[in-house]
TrEMBL record:
InterPro entries: Cyclin-like_sf (IPR036915). It comes from Macaca fascicularis (Crab-eating macaque). GO terms for biological process: reciprocal meiotic recombination; regulation of meiotic cell cycle; spermatogenesis. CDD domains: CYCLIN_CNTD1. Gene3D superfamilies: Cyclin-like. The gene is CNTD1. Coiled coil: none annotated. This is Cyclin N-terminal domain containing 1.
Length: 329
């Protein structure tokens, strides 16, 4: 692991659908649904997201450089985002406390500056922690991390790396085994295979990875267009935006949108059948699935994700608009 590594995309060689027992699939799907419902409920009152496209791209490219699977890169982004939210909440809390002396009033500024100075270190720590959660990946060694940081001009010791990981762990109360949208996508694809979906799960899986990369990179624009579509207003209010935060944490909704958009790309004639299956599996309204898949499709036109060149032809996006319109009538 300490020698030079060649970048690669997520390996799908050993990935298979249709080999898991139906009882296991049912139990796992139920667990994911319960987990998703809890996450949506807990999202209310959060400050929002800190998913800057350049930072997401940095994580994706670093994960590829270190030969990590896609699930690790998504989990690293989730860990980093929740860590940043916690840090922002702490800074805001310090800023609103009535200071007893001048030194105390400067505390929140010191916390902010410390976060800025150590951001790259914390980002790398999130990737390293995510790699330790995956049984399919070798853990990224401290030597590899130190060499990478040194190449960027950051000089750190092994002790500082350990302290950085511990800081992330403590901030998140050691709860870093976070769910990712990919788990929901792959489980729903498994169910679709058993339900007789006309589009093979493996074909959908590759396109889903591409679109999931895209959603992570264009997170805010995609969800903003979804918000405008849901309220039928091009200028949502601040209150509407705050209420919509819980939608951003709905990984089940994101998964069905990803799969529906992927099915449209692979075989638009089978799109209605796939969406119908997704609706019966999850209970999500057809109109919601159509709106989300359209938001993804329209933002995919001409878009390139790291390490991939696939984009959606404009004529398919235009046809998707007509399909969504007919689904809403």
């Amino acid at each position: 692991m300490d020698g030079p590594m060649r970048p690669r995309s997520a390996s799908l060689v050993d990935f298979q659908f249709g080999v898991v027992a139906t009882e296991t699939i049912e139990d796992t799907l139920l667990h994911l649904a319960q987990q998703n419902e809890q996450a949506v409920q807990e999202a209310s009152g959060r400050l929002g997201s800190f998913r800057e496209p350049r930072i997401v791209e940095f994580v994706f490219l670093l994960s590829e450089q270190w030969c990590l699977e896609k699930s690790v890169s998504y989990q690293a982004v989730e860990i980093l985002e929740r860590f940043m939210v916690k840090q922002a909440e702490n800074i805001c809390r310090q800023a609103t406390i009535q200071p007893r002396d001048k030194r105390e009033s400067q505390n929140w500024r010191a916390l902010k500056q410390q976060l800025v100075n150590k951001f790259t270190l914390r980002l790398v720590s999130c990737v390293q922690l995510a790699s330790k959660l995956s049984f399919q990946n070798k853990i990224i060694s401290n030597i590899t991390v130190l060499n990478f940081l040194q190449a960027l001009g950051y000089l750190h010791t092994k002790e500082e790396l350990l302290e950085s990981e511990l800081d992330v762990l403590k901030s998140l109360n050691f709860q870093i085994n976070l769910p990712t949208p990919l788990a929901y996508v792959e489980m729903l694809l498994e169910v679709l295979g058993y339900n007789g979906c006309l589009v093979p799960a493996m074909r959908l899986h590759g396109t889903c990875l591409t679109l999931l990369d895209l959603v992570y990179l264009l997170h805010e624009p995609i969800y903003e267009s979804l918000l405008r579509a849901s309220i039928e207003n091009s200028t949502p209010s601040q209150l509407q935006g705050e209420k919509f935060i819980s939608v951003k944490e709905d990984f089940m909704l994101l998964a069905v949108g990803i799969i529906a958009a992927s099915a449209f790309i692979q075989n638009h004639e089978c799109w209605s059948q796939v969406v119908g299956h997704l609706q019966s599996i999850t209970g999500i309204a057809l109109a919601s699935i159509a709106e989300f898949s359209y938001a993804i499709l329209t933002h995919s036109v001409g878009a390139n994700t790291p390490g991939r060149q696939q984009s959606i032809p404009p004529h398919l996006a235009a046809r998707a608009l007509k399909t969504v319109a007919s689904s809403n009538t």
